[in-house]
């Protein structure tokens, strides 16, 4: 037998086998083999101890020298919570694999795991997440009030841990996905500490149709309720409710679309009777939850909401008016009325005929026409508020399609700016409005109707006018008229980049000179260029034109104390003689 270059046994060990018979040789070899295997087990045990105890302990000692680990444990926990749980559950779990200290601190921090349960990136998505979610529930104890976000597929498992379910104070539940529509387990949960509930579901699902509506005592502490299902949620409303959102939002957080409305109420009086149960409401939103042809089964009560801060009603104009008519709110309530049926020339129809909405504090109007594709703006809207606070008291908005805007000759066909202004101007007092902002996206013109002349005459007290539009010829013509906006002190003009030309600049400067010659001098003037196209994207640098000519800037500086010329490639050089003129 050929021997290996590595001597496995010593000479003395090999001599033990010399002269032995076959059976004696095997017995002796077996004894030696057992000795070696025993030594191997001893060595393996020592290696295991080294790997599992000594090496990790030395690594832990090494890691303890890291600067971050010199921080107090409480501060480390705050850092761990900031890095992971609420924003990314995956990143949160990775922190437990960094070192023994981190893993130990995280496992012993209930707040870390309660954050994980209420992560922005929903943790409880499918059955694959069950073990992690249950571990998070266990480690979050003894936190008594926790937030939890989940999809409907997790409901059956949540039902098996009633102790944890009873600790939930904030629940976000999306059971609107087709394969997750069965919400019967939710109705069997005992949640006495639930304060905030957001639930998306379909009550028309065959399984859900068997559920009987439950009373508001099921959630005795409920303060916030948001859902697309009116059938079940209307029974949960009680005196503890502060925020009520029935229906659905067209666009949710970060552009995510919420589910469509699940069901609708037919009777307005039924809704008002429910609202009368919660006089402490601070925010009330109805979005498509009432039928387009509302009816009344009995008398409609007047609902007093003395603490209401926000009222947002969305639906057909007849629905908005019928609900708002019976609500009594403080003058400070911010109100938005949005319709998808009201034509552009009838925004005032959104207001209740009873005149229950006070607009005495409105001195600023912001008007928007059209919308940029990348934004979720209304087709047209009017917002009235207080110019000094920047808060809006009333918004009249519509998603109804606008008529055709212009033909090949750039002449308005269907849209009548005068009719649009006439449709809302009577709502706001001429003696109160001192600030006006008009913004348009698209080709809207006023070549024939005289809309600007009308609105300037209707609001003679204007001191501040801001224009971001694409049709300035008629605006400048209206401003040049005798006796127009005699109190105007500040003018802001943002011209569409496609409309920039020397002739338009000359017209604007000449108009301002004419007003000054009649004693109507501005105190400040801001001129800028709109550098976004109709879809909201920036134009290329090649398309950006310089601002107005130097001689025009000098002329402005000679008649207006404070002139600012803004441009994407600013600052553009301003002639020295106009020392009171600046660029930004």
From TrEMBL:
<feature type="coiled-coil region">
    <location>
        <begin position="26"/>
        <end position="53"/>
    </location>
</feature>
<dbReference type="Pfam" id="PF12937">
    <property type="entry name" value="F-box-like"/>
</dbReference>
<dbReference type="InterPro" id="IPR032675">
    <property type="entry name" value="LRR_dom_sf"/>
</dbReference>
<protein>
    <recommendedName>
        <fullName>F-box domain-containing protein</fullName>
    </recommendedName>
</protein>
<dbReference type="InterPro" id="IPR001810">
    <property type="entry name" value="F-box_dom"/>
</dbReference>
<dbReference type="InterPro" id="IPR036047">
    <property type="entry name" value="F-box-like_dom_sf"/>
</dbReference>
<feature type="domain" description="F-box">
    <location>
        <begin position="65"/>
        <end position="116"/>
    </location>
</feature>
<keyword id="KW-0175">Coiled coil</keyword>
């Amino acid at each position: 037998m050929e021997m290996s270059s590595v001597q496995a046994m010593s000479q003395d060990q090999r001599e033990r086998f010399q002269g032995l018979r076959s059976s004696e040789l095997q017995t002796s070899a077996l004894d030696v083999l057992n000795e070696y295997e025993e030594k191997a087990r001893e060595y393996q045990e020592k290696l295991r101890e080294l790997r599992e105890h000594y090496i990790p302990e030395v690594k832990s000692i090494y890691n303890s020298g890291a600067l971050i680990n010199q921080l107090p444990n409480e501060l480390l926990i705050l850092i761990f919570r900031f890095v992971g749980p609420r924003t990314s559950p995956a990143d949160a779990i990775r922190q437990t694999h960094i070192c023994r200290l981190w893993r130990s601190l995280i496992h012993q921090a209930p707040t870390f795991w309660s954050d994980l349960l209420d992560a922005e990136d929903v943790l409880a998505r499918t059955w694959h997440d069950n073990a992690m979610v249950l571990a998070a529930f266990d480690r979050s104890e003894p936190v008594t009030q926790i937030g939890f976000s989940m999809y409907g597929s997790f409901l059956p498992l949540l039902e098996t841990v009633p102790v944890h379910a009873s600790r939930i104070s904030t629940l976000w539940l999306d059971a609107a996905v087709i394969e997750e529509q069965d919400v019967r387990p939710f109705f069997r949960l005992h949640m006495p500490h639930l304060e905030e509930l957001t639930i998306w579901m379909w009550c028309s699902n065959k399984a859900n149709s068997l559920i009987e509506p439950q009373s508001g005592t099921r959630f005795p502490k409920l303060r916030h309720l948001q859902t697309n299902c009116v059938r079940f949620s209307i029974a949960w409303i009680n005196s503890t409710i502060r925020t009520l959102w029935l229906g659905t939002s067209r666009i949710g957080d970060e552009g995510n679309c919420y589910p469509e409305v699940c069901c609708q109420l037919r009777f307005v009086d039924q809704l008002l009777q429910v609202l009368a149960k919660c006089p402490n409401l601070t925010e009330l939103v109805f979005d498509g939850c009432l039928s387009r042809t509302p009816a009344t089964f009995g008398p409609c009560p007047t609902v007093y909401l003395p603490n209401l801060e926000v009222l947002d009603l969305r639906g057909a104009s007849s629905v908005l008016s019928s609900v708002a008519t019976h609500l009594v709110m403080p003058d400070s309530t911010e109100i938005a009325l949005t319709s998808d049926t009201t034509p552009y020339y009838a925004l005032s129809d959104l207001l209740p005929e009873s005149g229950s909405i006070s607009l005495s504090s409105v001195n600023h109007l912001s008007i928007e026409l059209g919308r940029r594709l990348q934004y979720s703006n209304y087709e047209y809207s009017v917002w009235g508020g207080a110019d000094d606070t920047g808060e809006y008291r009333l918004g009249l908005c519509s998603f109804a399609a606008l008529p055709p805007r212009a033909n090949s000759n750039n002449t308005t066909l269907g849209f009548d700016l005068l009719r649009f202004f006439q449709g809302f101007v009577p709502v706001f007092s001429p003696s109160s409005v001192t600030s006006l902002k008009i913004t348009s996206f698209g080709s809207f013109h006023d070549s024939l109707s005289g809309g600007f002349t009308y609105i300037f005459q209707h609001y003679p007290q204007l001191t501040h006018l801001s224009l971001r539009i694409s049709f300035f010829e008629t605006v400048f013509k209206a401003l040049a008229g005798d006796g127009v906006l005699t109190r105007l002190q500040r003018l802001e003009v943002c011209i569409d980049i496609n409309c920039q030309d020397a002739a338009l600049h000359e017209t604007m400067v000449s108009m301002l000179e004419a007003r000054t010659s009649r004693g109507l001098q501005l105190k400040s003037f801001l001129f800028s260029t709109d550098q976004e196209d109709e879809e909201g994207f920036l134009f290329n640098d090649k398309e950006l034109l310089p601002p107005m000519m130097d001689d025009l800037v000098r002329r402005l500086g000679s008649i207006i104390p404070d002139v600012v010329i803004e441009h994407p490639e600013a600052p553009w050089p301003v002639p020295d003689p106009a020392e009171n003129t600046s660029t930004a």
